[in-house]
Amino acid sequence: MAAFIEARIYELLNAERESRGLNALELSPDLSELARGHSRDMAATGSLSHFSPSGKTLGDRLTESGFFFEIGGENVAFSETFVPDFIHKALMDSPQHKGEILRPEYDRVGVGVVYEPDKGYFLTQDFVRSIVPVSAGEAEAGLKKQINNARAAGGLDPLVFVPEADRVARYYSEKKAGLKTPPSVEKLLGEVTVNFITAATLDLDTIKLSDVHSQSFQEAGLGVWFGRNPDLPGGGYFITLILFKKNDLPSPSPSLSPSD
Q: Under a CB-based contact definition with an 8 Å cutoff, are residues 240 and 207 in contact?
């Protein structure tokens, strides 16, 4: 019966989204198991809560379970009836729960229902906007292409990405992802312009790297590293873009490597 309720609840929430022109959510088995675990905790304590018995939040549970995500949200509910349409209607009648079901940014959901004899059904819906990490090489290649496409659209010559500067940029990004302080890029490369940002996406229009459209620069280095730290518990990209004028790049120390 719990599996039937989960399946129907998932069907109903996507019907609500699609009727309003929103994207349907992908049902994640792993996220459903996480939701089911939280429902088991609520059933054991006999109370509704967004905190686990040990005080962990949804963000804590997502991180500890290895999910990469930009944002997350959760609905919890209890019902004495097994009729999923009634349960769904009660959620939609609550502005807060309805807001989570219809939040446009989400792309995945997990639904977990647990029955506790003589009590009823405990429900958890866990929502996320997921991040699917790509390798450093793939991320860098894609971002370089976007940068030069944007420059071409503005009538500018493409940037020439210098391998030595790429190597320094990736080293810098890797260290920042690990909450370590790397040597300043200026110390390694001389007088250059450095852009460093963190982002959950590799979409150039979203991350808005500054100086990309400047005609003052002809050469560059780009380094991307995906990681997770206390500032980005759901994971994210650490991006370093080094910009300099042609022939302005001195040779850095030959001992420098991303693993240092």
A: no
Long-range pairs, 98-104, Cβ under 8 A, ≥24? 100/73, 100/74, 100/75, 100/125, 100/127, 101/13, 101/16, 101/17, 101/75, 101/125, 102/16, 102/17, 102/20, 102/22, 103/73, 103/127, 104/22, 104/23
User: What letter represents residue 98's amino acid?
Assistant: K
Q: Are the C-beta atoms of residues 218 and 43 closer than 8 Å to each other?
A: no
Per-residue pLDDT reduced to its tens digit, 196-205: 999 999 999 8
Q: Which tens digits make up the pLDDT trace of 165-186?
A: 999 999 999 998 887 877 776 6
Q: pTM for the complete prediction?
A: 0.82
